[in-house]
Amino acid sequence: MNRVLIAPSLLAADFSNLHHEVQAVHQAGADWLHLDMMDGHFVPNLSFGPLVVQKLAGGALPLDVHLMVTNPAEYLQPVKKLQAHSMVVHVEACVHLQRLLSAIRAEGMLAGVALNPSTSPEFLEYVKDDLDIVLVMTVNPGFGGQAFLSSMLPKIKRVRQLVGSQPRITVDGGVGENNAKALVEAGADVLVAGNSVFSQADYAAAIAALRPL
Predict the structure, then answer these.
(1) What's the pTM value of the predicted model, to 2 decimals?
(2) Count of structural domains, the chain
């Protein structure tokens, strides 16, 4: 298994003070910075656009960009300009998934695919050689602060069976101290945490609590 990484989600951060929030989670021991970009169409919400995120580009933490948009291919160059470490697209929004995953890698980023809770993971068999990350949504995407769907634990196990040991499995949605151990045991090795980090007074303690013993 890969070392388990903690990726605080900026969706739960203080939008009025993002630069400080990014510095704070870096100093607190975060491994990645998870960035949700929403278009108001694929999900019923808007979040960060490229112009806002440019202010965070080139920071000390790798940017893990999760696109909740209807036209992810059009974001390839804007996300590259953000100096993103990884670009994750939703299978539900991709007509030519393998082509886009290859294009992401060609631009020097890790290529990832996200699955909504109701999406079967079986298609991964046909794109696993083009994948660096599989993001299993453990809530329905679009809003932070939702309750974790425990029915996703068997799905995470199935994803690990399908893709093998190398691609990272990220989980996003309702991740906290109470379920982190079960998620890692199921096969996850990147935990995206929003409220369970940013709602706490001590970010370092919150991040440490998510790491497996």
Answers:
(1) 0.92
(2) 1
